[in-house]
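debug: dumping io for the single-chain case to check the tokenizer round-trip. Nothing else runs in this session.
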Amino acid sequence: EVQLLESGGDLVQPGGSLRLSCTASGFTFSTYWMGWVRQLPGKGLEWVSSLYTRDGSSYYADSVKGRFTITRDKAKNTLYLQMDSLKPEDTTVYYCAADRYRYQPPYTYRGQGTQVTVSS
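debug: decoded output
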């Protein structure tokens, strides 16, 4: 059974930082595309970032480029999202996702999400 377990969401002030983690199990982590998506209020899911676990190549949405960094630890089957210079508009639920072939949604697997709130 595939499981993606996110953690790290919290309340942070504007300009602050958070690191999200996603621990994966039930599939061969090192051969998948892993990504982060977020739920826009009143809208659908927004793709945030993706990483190919085999070689670490990464991609970012324009809205987070230069502020967010996606990385992975293959030994721990864990994906990370380092979020710096956070803005109030980054507030939402963040989901970890995985797909064997796609680097953007729709993904085959998605976790339950972790809440990020950016507010003073």
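debug: round-trip ok. The longest strand covers residues 18-25.
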